[in-house]
Amino acid sequence: MAGEKVLVIGSGPAGLSATKELRNMGVDVVLVERESYLGGTPKKLKYSLLFPELRPASEVLDPLIKGVENSGVKTYMESIVEGIKEEDKGFTVSIKDKSGKIVNEKVNAVIAASGFEHFDSRRKYEYGYGIIPNIYQISDIERMLSENKLVTTKGTPPKRVAILLCVGSRDATVGNTYCSRVCCAVSTKQAMEIKERVPDAVVHIYYMDIRTYGLMEDKLYWKSQLEYRVGYIRGRISEFMRGPNDTVIIKGEDTMNLNRALVVPYDMVILANGMELGLGSKQVAKTLGLELEEHGFVKPLDPDRLPVQSTRKGIFLAGAITGPKTISDSITEGYAAAMKAYEYVTRGIWDESDFAKKRIEVTHH
Amino acid sequence: MPIPNLEKPIIKGLIQKDKVIVDGVELDGTWNAFMIERTQTGYDQSVWDEIANTIEGATISLCWQCGTCTSGCTMREYDPNYSPRRFIDLARKGDKQALIELQDSLWRCVSCQKCTHRCPKGVLVEEVVHSIHNYLLKHGLVKRDPGTIFDELFLETVMKNGGRISELLLGGASAKAGFVTMSLRDLITMMGPLMKSGLIKDLMKPNRVKNWDRIKPVLEEAMKEEVVPE
Ligand SMILES: Cc1cc2nc3c(=O)[nH]c(=O)nc-3n(C[C@H](O)[C@H](O)[C@H](O)COP(=O)(O)OP(=O)(O)OC[C@H]3O[C@@H](n4cnc5c(N)ncnc54)[C@H](O)[C@@H]3O)c2cc1C
Ligand code: SF4
Ligand code: SF4
Ligand code: SF4
Q1: Which of A29, A44, A118, B185 counts the highest number of beta carbons within 10 A?
Q2: Mean pLDDT over all residues of chain A?
Q3: Is residue A261 included in any domain, yes or no?
Q4: In 3D, which of A121, A135, A123, A120 has the Cα closest to residue A241?
Q5: 3-state SS track over B190-206
Q6: Does the distance separating the beta carbons of B95 and A257 come in below 8 Å?
């Protein structure tokens, strides 16, 4: 092997695991990260406990970060990839830092792992996020839990909490017709964390379906009811109103019990905002010339057979850039992308599929 | 589409026609069905807590509202408002008002245990339904139902009768409570066989169980105790 080099964009769980595996296989890596720290969205938002094992996020992320820091990777922090030019044996990429300085690097392949961003609940104006006090998003609550600052505007821990699922997901009004996959688990986990800290709090989860799929069914969903008495109320809340004393009044329907309109006060409301591609990954997709699939995520060459190859030869994908995913799935895809990139840079292997070229009709409602 | 029975009591001004032709278009269904607004403005979490802390109600927290219990329930066939699943849901939410509205159904469980055997979550449904009903009785939220009244009459008769059940006394008590009717003619008809068989003696002076004087205080003491899970 003669100095093969791979560019990895993004240092979340997916990018970190891809980087580490490539280093283990003796491939040089150039890592480009927009923020000033490694660890991706879980670090940025200071996740508290991770589902499904309910262990501190640092237990999972810190070993990954250390592994990369100690592996002699050339890292460009607070930088983005601004341009890419195809060469006979790979690409020349230009990397721009915060001050606008541009550096060129020659690489043989690219792994795009720039992840997702949270849905901004202000786009659902009827929920009053950012306007009515004491309305938060699950992405805000993680930090409040990990920094031990779970309090209402009164400065006291909440005694009545409502969590509304599927905010910005499964909702044609905001153009997101997919399920974000992790928010049921995150919400259930947060409900248990709240009850752990405030045992006499009332916590209600308003849901349409509970998707704590696979092994999380009993670990999260059953457990939250049996051990913590988290209440589940079926029905999607239609609006929130500001109540007296900074309470939030929800308006909904209890669809399990016919014709029960609900007008219930809470002192904290949490919106389970979903996952979207986000501006960071859109910039990556545009620069690298990657196609998007019908939900707006980056399109793999073949979602079943070649999930970590992009539609452009030499560019691989890993993590939430291709759709909502858990941390363990993102790490696994990091491994997979590293292996495929290794085969590509050492032996020129690139699997083909005409799947992405076929037109697929997806019915939207 | 026919209106589900559960909804009927809360609908006013119902007009139902099997077939109606309007401007040559055939319609069927229900018109003028206005729902009476009933708004739930707050749930009482203490209901769930209190029921889950009783021995009978301990498994209430397992329920995931699948409806297996209700769909096979014996009583459901006779009473369309009878739904163990729904009772559990309302109790867990603490929707007391809705439970009070269901008081003529809540007590009707015949303890056949079909629900308990079939529940995929291991909820002891029959026991939980009783614990919900007991909760409402204990807090004076529902009127005393015929089932409870009969249970009390039964126990009273047994205690009065020296530890044995006397059909005649129980019959008399039930008649007084209005569960059965007993006319003078019924009494006269019964008297003949009672005299002839000598059972009349037993009625006048009941044949007590052995050592009744010692058993009675034990039973009385046991009835006073309230069982609380550890
Ligand atoms: C509230 C919430 C809680 C969650 N909790 C859990 C949990 O408990 N357990 C679990 O398994 N999963 C959880 N998830 C899911 C988890 O966050 C994702 O699976 C995971 O972060 C995806 O990893 P990733 O590496 O693909 O992307 P990310 O973590 O998003 O990392 C992407 C990285 O790329 C960088 N980047 C973006 N754009 C650019 C650019 N243009 N140039 C350079 N760099 C760029 C970003 O700064 C970031 O560092 C949660 C999600 C949410 C919404
Ligand atoms: S995971 Fe749950 S909360 Fe999230 S979009 Fe899917 S169903 Fe809704
Ligand atoms: S069968 Fe069991 S889990 Fe299902 S609704 Fe009835 S009690 Fe609940
Ligand atoms: S035990 Fe009671 S609730 Fe259960 S199936 Fe029989 S009648 Fe219905």
Answers
A1: A29
A2: 94
A3: yes
A4: A135
A5: HHHHHHHHCHHHHHHCC
A6: yes
Distance A41 CA to ligand 1 centre (A): 4
Residues A125 and A228 occupy one common structural domain: yes
* Chain B neighbors of A211, CB-CB under 8 A: none
Choose, out of A194, A237, A257, the residue to mutate when testing the contact with B (most B CBs < 10 Å). Answer: A257
Instruction: Return the domain boundaries, chain B.
Output: 5-35, 46-138, 146-208
Q: How far is B140 from chain A (nearest CA, A)?
A: 24
When scoring A258, A266, A267 by the number of chain B Cβ atoms within 10 A, the one with the most, hence best to mutate, is A258
Residue A143 lies in a domain: yes
Residue A150 sits in which domain range?
Answer: 120-274
User: A222: number of CA atoms within 13 Å, CB side?
Assistant: 13
Distance between CA atoms of B5 and B23, rounded to whole angstroms? 31
The parts of chain A modelled with pLDDT lower than 70 are: 1-2, 258-259, 359-365
Q: Measured between CB atoms, does B97 come within 8 Å of chain A?
A: no
- How far lies B53's CA from each of A187, A229, B2, in Å? 26, 12, 40
User: Residue B62 is nearest to which of A226, A232, A258, comparing CB atoms?
Assistant: A226
Of A216, A246, A274, at which residue does a domain stop? A274
What are the average pLDDT values for consecutive 10-residue runs of chain B, which has 230 residues? 57 61 68 62 90 96 91 90 95 93 95 92 96 96 91 88 82 85 86 87 81 91 67
Q: Number of A to B CB contacts under 8 A, please give it.
A: 64
Do B121 and B62 meet the contact criterion of CB atoms below 8 Å apart? yes
Residue B121 CA: nearest ligand 3 atom is 3
Q: How far is CA B128 from CA A166, B56, B229, in A?
A: 32, 6, 14
